[in-house]
Design goal:
Elements lengths: L10 H9 L11 E5 L2 E4 H17 L8 H24 L6 H14 L4 H10 L3 H23 L6 H8 L2 H7 L2 E10 L7 H15 L4 H6 L2 E2 L2 E2 L1 E9 L24 E3 L2 E11 L5 E12 L7 H16 L4 H8 L3 H4 L4 E6 L5 H7 L11 E3 L2 E14 L1 H32 L2 E3 L6
Antiparallel strand pairs: 1-2, 1-13, 3-6, 3-8, 4-5, 7-8, 9-10, 9-12, 11-12
Amino acid sequence: MLKTTKFIYSLFAAMLFLAVLPVHAQLSDRVIAIVDDEVILKSELDARMVSVREQIAAGTIPRGIPLEELQSQVLEQLIMDSLQSQLAVRSGIRIDDNTLNQALTAIAQQNNMSFDEFRTVLNQEGQYLEFREQIRKDMMINNLQNGSINQRITITRQEIENYLRSEAAQADISPEYRVQHILVPVDNPAANSLQEELADLIYEQLQDGADILELAASREILGLPVGGGDLAGWRKVEALPTMFRSVVPGMQVGEITEPFTSNSGFHIVKLVEKRGGVDLQVNQAQIRHILIQPNEIRTPQQAEELIHELYQRIQDGEDFGDLARVYTDDPGSMVSGGDLGWVTEGQLPPAFEAVASQLEIGELSQPFQNENAWHIAQVMDRKVEDVTEENARFQAEQILRERKYDNELENWLTEIRDTAYVDIRLDDSN
């Protein structure tokens, strides 16, 4: 949950942003500020102020703030953008074209356009290249801030423990649920056998694939009233109806309960989605492998031949571990006979993961290629590991880091502003 800048703009915001991009300097343009190695031109400030006036007219900026004050704030923002941009370049931060294109594609999709359509719209205004480079600059500044601020923030073990014991933690990291339900209403569930039979019938229909919302919307089944529907929105346990609070937390997503009773009748509940929370179990496998890759004395063809030779030798009865100690090109697992230890699902490269996930315990894989390297893999054991405690601590640290981020960012911005060379040459009369 680290603080990050979001690069998903609405089309309106994108076009408004374009309106404040610097125009080409006119002959009458002049420098109004020197910021370390860069200058800020009067035309840049003027363009930003045009946008400010438009936002005042639209009501997005409150009226009554003197324009001189707004102009001073806008100039200060231009100065801070320049300082951070220069610092990002000096820090070696780069945004390659592929990463930039992904960000632009996300912006286009947010506006229900393809990348090519979005680019066409901007090109029609003559602004595509400027917009593209401004997004690159914003991403560089964002990366600079994340790297600079997060290394200033320290979260102690005691802070995490104190937070996890607090009431705030229960609200922050407890799971949320989306629930649908059907109610067969009765005055006295213990004395209404017809309604109980109907609830059982509805449950059977749901198990056979019937839609719970359609059944609830029918309002009457076999002449008996039914109710229910979707409990709108995400809800934490305390926001669920009282009779659901002991039921929903123990359900799996997609699960439908058997009918249960409350004072109002017979209920059937379906858990549609779940998010958040700290309960987490992960699939792990104990894997060993032999890695063979080309090198200065081994061609790609020879690497392929060697891995197939080793595979056959294992099939013929030679010990996997002994061969791994002699032949593997993985120094990290060489001493242990190719043993990678317990590996959590998702930690391995995709091609390796795809093969390992299909292996039974003790099964040896055929030789397979991952990029330019060859592998033989064997799954020694599998287990489901409960990492709820570690997950709770991780989420707590991220929340505490988020809370400290804004204050540290403000301190950092003040520091870089105070240590920079800034010469403001804006004449109040212009």
